[in-house]
Every structure is written in structure tokens, then in C-alpha cells.
């Protein structure tokens, strides 16, 4: 017999899960729309060549590839002489993030899209990662991106919107860590890391939170960065860490500390973002690296205490869209991780009661006997017209069983239409919590149901 | 340079498309919830073995298979001596419909789910079909299923809910064609089609709408069904067709016509469905076959004039869940095709104006100069707090350019805060349709914006 479990790293969402997910998604949508972002959706399946080479070597390996079909596959596997490559077997792949598809869409529709295109996109992505606690192979990204402007107004509005979302969801202690790829480049240059090793260094620095300063130093050495450079680099970050442990005017102190290392232009950009998003809890962190290689300017990540990793991250990527079209178009975006948000909200009971204690229906309509089924169905229709969510018990079983069912699935009211009630044009309504029963006109049911 | 088109048979949905899709999905959700159906979501990727053998031979071929990863793949492709099979190369697959995953979930969670489990599920499915007009490789199914009861109340409520949805979307001329697998079996028996050829015969009969009576007769013959049986079969369907062309009491006449062929029990079930869903426009059609092999009882399909194919279909499948568990659990469901619904609604302009003429934002806030950016952002925040959707022009360009942008993307109001207005704590509001301009207190903007 086939297994009934979902595939490795994948999850089924039962109704209570879906309601929580939709609640969070609803708030994210509503805030993004209030900022003038528009919804976009792209296909789950992309041409393999669209995705390959956009996420670094590790990313390439984590892309789920789809097997060629029919003739195309037979032509490739029929000949036993050559070793098969993935590209012989696969032509399509599952979406790995929402940014590369966006870049493709912008390049493909550049005549139909406004010169500033502000879109949000909430869809699943797939990564063939080793599953672990809180890490899945299918997960939702909630992306927001503004295309077409180099102004720091974009970064500011993105940070404000993300901050609004987290506040509306009930987060009170989150921090938006902010950095700039140019800050990192300038620090690496100052420390004497040769330019061709910058990408390697960033991959190592990105792990600072996970493996600590010693771990990063070891990895820097493994990646061929000299001890002198590594020591200087870690020294600069250690100084920042000291400042981060202080209490006030942290951003100002950090910026002051960078004045001799980082260009004025870059510091001005960071200053503008702080000013334009002055209600968002932003903290400049010069050691923030972000894994992806396509960032070119500001980068950011949202963290909360008690959660390893981040709730989301993003940054400016002025070069990516040019990979798909003739034109370089500036762009900046942010991606919230739905699963991360849900983990924290679940642990801290942050869902409002109507979501946390949701029920499948407001009222269960019982069935008195085989002959009265139509009456019960008609009653259900009338209650639905009153705005109630109504489920009908499907079988003419003993009334006790029907009540027990309502109780088991948490339906707060049961409506009985027996022979007497049907004759009188009335119904009996029972409040399952209080046990209270009353006989009512059908038209008065909704006003007696308290949800 | 990589192609910027979506993969073959896949589509990007720009904001106007997404709004239309979400409008339809919203109505479907709301009606299903009013009937007490609960949301369920399952992963896009299933174990290959979960899907194989559930959709017939043709289905097996149309399932998108995912390439094995890393070591698992190398072990299989390294040895050139054997011919590779798909199962050597693939272990996972993309969801082909929402019914088989539901059956898996029910078997996997049978102790946590209520004895009657009513769920809806609106998610994409993937089929490696040859793309054609209106046929895509990724498309959304909107499924609703009731698990655990053999009562025709289930069929009745499903038909009522589907009918309510289509009416709320503005469909006035749809028909729910209803049949029963047992009716087909009895007709095939009566015509003398041997039992082992029933499945073949049904595949042919399913194409009656597409290829006509002569086409079906040819295919029946190709599939080894005798001319005598084929002629008798087509005769029975032709009689029905004549009745279908009459005007009144069609269902009663059709049932009367089947009395000598079909068992009483089956006709009673059909009669109950008609009675329990008496507001739904149901028409009994004994030639309705439905392609999928897992149906065991009532089957139905929704058609509208001027659209080849159907808006959706479904039926009872009492044997499917048992394929995943020890227990046979009765079940019945219906699937609406989102894309089909959208095609018809687009052609007939059935979207309400707020969807058809939607805009990215209610108000564009301009930027006067570099120094006033913060004032503009603050203004935007206040307008959002008034409930407006507000986009900020990201750059301090000439005001004319900013107005032109608002006009191009269809934003109905533009709000200007120049030096004078900022000093006076006021803003200038321009109605882009009428050209009307007024100077207002910030707190009065929302009440002067008519959406």
C-alpha cells in the first residue's frame, strides 16, 4: 500500500493551519496594497535556463528539476555511450525564489508595465534542501519589490511597509538590520581581501550569526583569505559588535565609526533610508552580508529575539533585470518568510481568538427524519441568506449523534427542525456552550447567534 | 540571452489578471464556507508512487515528474548497461489533481479529522498536456468534497453550492448535467458490451460532445466493441438526445425512459439529488461519462452555451480513499475550473467595475523637492491611516512628470504638498478625471476622495 505521508520536507495544511496562514497573508496583502503595491503571480514551473546561474553553485544544486517528457527523454536516454548530464534529462524546473521570475516578467513586459512598477507576490517556492526543524522543501515567500527607481525613497517605503506588517501582526521586538553591499566591499578592501575573493568572503561572513566569529575566521582561511586580512576584518566587525551592545544613538555611532572606511555616498544612502523610514526599528549592522549574489546596494534582514535566522530579508539589485533584457533597470525588494512568521506567532499565541478558535460553521442544521430532509436543506439556505455559515448533518441518524458531532467539531449552535417546528414555521436553537435552548422564528435565528 | 517568456503552457498573471482571479476565488471561498466547508492545502509535490496508477494510462504520462537529486541520480545514470526507466530517474511528481492528495490526507489523518469532513481546496495542478487555446500546463482547480457519508444530501448540497457560486458570479444560463456510473453500466450491459470493455467504452462515450455520435461509434469499434452493441448503445443515447430537445419535464421523461434499463435504486438516488438541490438547474444526461476512472456513483458536469467543454465536474468516488488506507470511506466532490470560468467572464464582461477598472492606488502623493521627501512620506502615512491606498512618487522630478505618471497608471487622485501647503498644514488634491483641484486639511482628504 502506498504511503499516506506527504513527500519528504513537504506539508499538508489542515483547516486550522490554512486559516492561520490566510490570516497572515491577508494582513501582508492589505498593507502592501495600502502602499500602492500590485499583485503579480508567476508560474511554479520555469524554463531551466531561466533559473540556472542566478543563485550561485549551491543554489543551482538546490533547484528541483523536472524530467523531460516522452520523445525528448527517449532520445537522451536511449544511447548508453555517453554519461548523462542533468541538462540531458531536464528542461524545466520549480521556482526557487520570486525575484528571478519577477526580473524575467519585467524584461518580458517592459512596454506594458509602468516606469515604476510596484508589485507584491505571495507564492510558494521549492528548494531541494535537507529538511530540518522549520526548514521545508516547499515554503511561501511574501515578496514586495519596486522596480525602476534608484531613489532611497524605495528602500524607505519598503522598510516602513514591512515594519507596519509586523506591528499589525503583533510583533513588538523585531529589528530591521540594515547594511550596504558597498560598506562590505569597502571593509573588505580596507582589510586587504583581494577583489576576486570578495564573494567567498561574503559567503563566510553571512554565517556570522550561525557559526560565530571563530567559525567565520576558520572559513575565511579555508577560502584562501590571509590571516592578516581576516584578523583586520573580524576586528572591524568586533568594534561594531561593541557599539551594538551600547544603548543609545547606535546608528549614529556606527556610521561615525565607518567614516574612514566607507565612501560618503554610501553613508548618505544609509542615512536617507533611516530618515525615510523613521518609524521602523532599523539598526545598521556592517557585518550583515546576505547570501545571494545579486545584491548591489542596501541589504536588510529582519530578526526577532529567540528565533535563529531571520523573518525575512531583501535589498537592492540593480543588475538582475539586465540579465534578462537589454536594459539595466534599478530594483529593490524585500521577502518575508511566511513559515518563520507563523512559527513565532504560534509559539507566542499571537493569533486573535477568531482565528485561533475558528470553527467549521456557525450553525449545524440537524435532520429529523428521511421525510424532512428537504425542510432541513431549505432551513439551511435561509440561514445562509441571513449571513450564517451553516453545515447540514448529512444523514437522518439519532439526534444525539448529530449533537455529539456538532460538539466534536466545535460548532457553537445547533438548529433542530422537527415535525412540530416545521408545522409551526419555527426552529429550536441550542447554544452548545451554555446549553441554552429556545424556539424561534426562522427569520430570528441569525440575531440570536453570537459569533 | 535567456528567453523572457514563461515556460510552454505556463502563464504570468499581471496585476489586472490577479485581481480578476482573486475576485472569483473570493466568491468561491465565501460560498463554500457558508456551506460549512473548510480550507485544506496540500503540497505541490507528491511522491511519484502516490500519483501513479490513479489516473489511467493517459494520466500517468501527463504527470510532470521531478528528477532525482545528487547521489540518488548518479547511482542510476552511472551505469550505461541498462535502459533507464522513468522510475530510475524520478521519485517525486507535481500534483495532477486535488482529489488524490485529498484521499491521501484523509487516510493519513483519519483519527484527527471529523467523521464527516467537508473541505474545499483551491490550488494549481500541473499536466504535461499539449498546450492549446484555453488549455494550460498549470491551472487552478477549485475543489469541494464531502468525505464520510453515502447520503445523497451530500450530492444535493454540492450541487446547490456550485449553483450558488455560478449565480453569484453572474452566470444565468448554466446547466448541471447529472448522471450515475450505474446508469452507464446498466446501459452498457443492456447494449451487450462485455464488462471488461466497459472502461474502454466510457473513454469513448466521454468524447460524445467533442467528436459526435459517429466519432464515438468509430472509436467504440476501434476499442473492440461489436457493431451490434455499439448501435444499440448509440440508439439509447439518441433517444435521450431527442428528449433533451423537448421543452418541459425533461428529467421526469428521461428517468421514465430508463426504467426498463436502470435499477430502481440508482433512479432513486438521481431523484433524491434533483429534490435536494431543487434550486440548481440540473438536467439528467445518461450519456455523460466523465473521463476519470475512480467514480462510483453520481457524476456531474457544468456546461454553458458557447463554451466547448465544461466549467467543472465531479462525482462520487467511494473507492479511492480505500486505496490509501485500510478503510473504505465514501466520498463525493466537485471541481470548478478557474480558467474556464475566467474565459467566459472575460468574454462576457461579467466583472464588476471595481475589479474590471481597478487601479494600483487611490492617491498618488507627489514629491516637491529633495528637502520635502520626509513630509511627503509622512503625508502618505496619514492618508493610509485614513484607509486610502497611497503610492508615493519615488523621485523629486518635475511635477508635470509626476502627474503624467499618475494618469498613465490610472490613479484617480493626486495629492501635492509644496512648500506653501506644508507650512499651512494643508495639501492640494486633484481629481484626475474632472481636473478639479482643491486645497484641504490633511485630515479631510479621505472624505473628499470618491472611489
What can you tell me about this protein's structure?
Two copies of one chain form a homodimer. The first copy, chain A, has 451 residues and is α+β, with helices and mostly antiparallel strands. Chain A folds into two domains: 15-347, BirA Bifunctional Protein, domain 2 (2-Layer Sandwich), CATH 3.30.930.10; 359-448, Rossmann fold, CATH 3.40.50. Chain A contains 19 helices and 16 strands. In chain A, strand 15 and strand 16 (437-441) form a beta hairpin. The model of chain A has no long low-confidence stretch (mean pLDDT 92). Chains A and B meet through helix 1, strand 1, strand 2, strand 3 and helix 4 of A and helix 1, strand 1, strand 2, strand 3 and helix 4 of B.
Query: What is the CATH-assigned architecture of the largest domain in chain A?
Result: 2-Layer Sandwich
Q: Strands of the biggest beta sheet of chain A: in what spatial order?
A: 1-5-6-11-10-9-7-8
Low-confidence stretches of chain A: none
> Remind me, CATH topology of the largest domain in chain A?
BirA Bifunctional Protein, domain 2
| Major sheet characteristics of chain A | 8 strands, mixed
The overall pLDDT of chain A, averaged over residues, is: 92
Ends apart, CA distance between termini of chain A: 43 Å
Strands, helices and their partners?
Two copies of one chain form a homodimer.
Chain A: H1 15-34, E1 38-39, E2 45-47, H2 48-51, H3 56-62, E3 65-67, H4 70-77, H5 86-89, E4 90-94, H6 99-108, E5 117-126, E6 138-147, H7 152-169, E7 175-180, H8 181-191, H9 198-205, H10 208-222, H11 227-245, H12 250-258, H13 264-276, E8 282-284, E9 298-303, E10 312-316, E11 331-337, H14 338-347, H15 353-356, E12 363-365, H16 373-385, E13 390-392, H17 399-408, E14 413-416, H18 419-424, E15 426-431, E16 437-441, H19 445-448
Parallel strand pairs in A: 1-5, 7-8, 12-13, 12-14
Antiparallel strand pairs in A: 2-4, 3-4, 5-6, 6-11, 7-9, 9-10, 10-11, 14-15, 15-16
Amino acid at each position: 500500500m502506498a504511503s499516506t505521508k506527504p513527500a519528504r520536507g513537504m506539508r499538508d495544511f489542515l483547516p486550522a493551519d490554512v486559516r492561520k496562514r490566510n490570516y497572515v497573508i491577508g494582513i501582508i496583502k492589505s498593507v502592501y496594497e495600502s502602499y500602492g503595491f500590485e499583485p503579480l503571480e508567476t508560474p511554479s514551473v520555469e524554463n531551466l535556463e531561466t533559473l540556472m546561474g542566478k543563485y550561485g553553485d549551491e543554489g543551482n544544486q538546490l533547484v528541483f528539476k523536472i524530467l523531460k517528457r516522452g520523445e525528448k527523454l527517449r532520445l537522451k536516454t536511449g544511447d548508453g555511450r555517453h554519461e548523462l548530464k542533468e541538462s540531458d534529462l531536464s528542461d524545466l524546473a520549480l521556482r526557487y525564489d520570486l525575484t528571478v521570475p519577477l526580473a524575467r516578467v519585467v524584461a518580458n513586459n517592459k512596454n506594458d508595465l509602468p516606469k515604476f512598477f510596484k508589485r507584491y507576490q505571495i507564492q510558494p517556492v521549492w528548494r531541494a534542501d535537507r529538511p530540518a526543524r522549520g526548514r521545508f522543501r516547499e515554503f511561501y515567500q511574501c515578496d514586495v519589490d519596486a522596480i525602476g527607481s534608484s531613489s532611497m525613497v524605495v528602500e524607505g517605503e519598503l522598510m516602513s511597509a514591512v515594519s507596519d506588517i509586523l506591528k499589525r501582526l503583533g510583533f513588538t521586538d523585531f529589528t530591521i538590520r540594515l547594511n550596504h553591499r558597498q560598506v562590505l566591499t569597502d571593509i573588505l578592501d580596507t582589510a586587504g581581501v583581494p577583489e576576486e575573493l570578495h564573494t567567498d568572503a561574503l559567503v563566510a561572513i553571512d554565517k556570522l550569526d550561525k557559526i560565530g566569529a571563530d567559525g567565520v575566521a576558520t572559513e575565511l582561511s579555508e577560502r584562501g583569505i590571509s590571516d592578516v586580512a581576516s584578523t583586520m576584518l573580524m576586528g572591524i566587525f568586533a568594534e561594531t559588535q561593541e557599539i551594538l551592545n551600547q544603548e543609545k544613538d547606535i546608528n549614529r555611532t556606527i556610521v561615525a565609526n565607518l567614516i574612514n572606511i566607507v565612501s560618503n555616498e554610501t553613508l548618505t544612502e544609509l542615512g536617507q533610508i533611516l530618515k525615510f523610514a523613521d518609524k521602523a526599528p532599523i539598526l545598521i549592522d556592517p557585518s550583515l552580508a546576505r547570501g545571494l549574489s545579486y545584491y548591489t546596494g542596501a541589504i536588510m534582514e529582519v530578526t526577532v529575539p529567540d528565533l535563529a535566522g531571520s523573518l525575512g530579508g531583501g535589498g537592492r539589485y540593480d543588475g538582475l533585470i539586465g540579465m534578462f533584457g537589454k536594459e539595466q533597470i534599478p530594483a529593490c525588494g524585500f521577502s518575508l518568510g511566511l513559515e518563520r512568521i507563523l512559527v513565532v506567532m504560534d509559539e507566542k499565541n499571537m493569533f486573535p481568538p477568531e482565528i485561533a478558535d475558528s470553527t467549521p460553521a456557525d450553525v449545524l442544521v440537524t435532520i429529523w427524519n428521511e421525510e424532512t430532509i428537504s425542510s432541513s436543506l431549505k432551513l439551511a439556505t435561509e440561514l445562509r441568506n441571513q449571513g450564517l455559515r451553516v453545515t447540514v448533518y448529512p444523514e437522518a441518524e439519532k439526534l444525539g449523534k448529530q449533537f455529539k458531532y456538532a460538539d466534536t467539531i466545535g460548532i457553537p449552535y445547533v438548529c433542530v427542525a422537527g415535525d412540530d417546528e416545521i408545522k409551526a414555521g419555527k426552529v429550536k436553537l441550542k447554544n452548545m456552550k451554555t446549553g441554552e435552548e429556545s424556539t424561534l422564528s426562522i427569520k430570528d435565528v441569525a440575531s440570536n447567534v453570537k459569533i
